[in-house]
Amino acid sequence: MRSNENKALSDNERLLGALLRIPYQALTVRIQQGLVEQGHPEFHASHLRVLQHIEPTGSRLSDLTEDAQMTKQAINYLIEYLEEQGYVLRVADKSDGRAKIIHLTDLGRLCEQQAREIIKQTEAEWATHLGQSRMELLRETLRDLAALIETAS
Questions:
Q1: Where is 61: in which H helix or E strand?
Q2: Does residue 13 or residue 53 have the better pLDDT?
Q3: Domains of the chain, earliest start first
Q4: Which residue, among 100, 74, 103, 64, has the nearest Cα to 87 in the 3D structure?
Q5: Which residue, 99, 51, 56, is CA-closest to 79?
Q6: Tell me: the pLDDT tens digits for 70-112?
Q7: Where are the alpha helices (DSSP H) in the chain?
Q8: Residue 153 pLDDT class (50, 70, 90 cuts)
Q9: Greatest CA span in the chain, whole angstroms?
Q10: Around 106, how many Cα atoms within 13 Å sit in the side-chain half-sphere?
């Protein structure tokens, strides 16, 4: 990540997209590096875009395509790789024989659990620097913004 990307802009001039992107990218890098350190050397940040959208009961490919905002070809490519590595499993959809349901395997669930722990550790570090009350306010504000966006959709 380039640290001087927005140096020409004052903090007040940075657009919200940049202010949201910077911590998101930092968190993504931390998750990917942490998972590699915890025994998942084949895991890449792009896999997070798929895994984070797989429901506990499984997800259809078409739903993953929409949720991850990726093309069907890109999702298929990532799912194939994740299946080869043992993170996901495709199962025939009982309600539609043509469709497949993507499920996390035990390894996929372990990876998800480890990613959640990395996120919690990172949030705790950020709270130490920002202060607990500011971190709680940030979370509350983002929760409200997410609810507004989801309601409008």
A1: helix 61-68
A2: 53
A3: 20-152 (1.10.10.10)
A4: 103
A5: 51
A6: 999 999 999 999 999 999 999 998 888 788 999 999 999 999 9
A7: 16-37, 45-51, 61-68, 72-84, 106-130, 132-152
A8: confident
A9: 56
A10: 0
